[in-house]
Amino acid sequence: MSKPKEPVSEHHEAPTDGGYEKEYELLQRITADIGDAIITEGTYVHKQHNRIFIQILPERLRDVVQYMKETHDMWQFSTLSGRDLGDDLQAVYHFFLTDKKIGITFRLNVPRSKPEYQSITDLYPAAEFVENELRELFGITVLGHPNVRRVELPEHWPKDEYPLRKDWTDPRGLMKRSKTLGPKSKEEL
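RESULT FIELD:
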């Protein structure tokens, strides 16, 4: 009889015994400075060199990125992605520290029942488009966003239907397209 498999962690932590000194040193400094905003579980140095993942409290996102901008010259915003974790939804902000050549990912979980947190577009204007995209596709409300608008889905898309959530089933065939017929008209929806 075979042994049951251990659950596979999504975290691929780097060993602490060498080769990742600059990453661990940076993570230790960040944790010492703003540790009250960090959730230890989900915070680690990735085994891929020059990558750090930090799980933060959603209400502290602005504090964290402001601190990183001022203290660690984190000016290069890369992108924002979303995840459906079941009871929670997750916003995943990706940044790059040019001088240290380290990528930093901030993850924040928000409850599915009230998926919201404050925007960072005033700190990083490049986040404007992807924060709108996150709202449209995952239903995560980014409070204080300066320009809420459609960016991916058509204007007639039904309210409260988020196609990247795992429980979305496309009951009206909104995502089906035919090469010969094209998209459905408003009347067909």
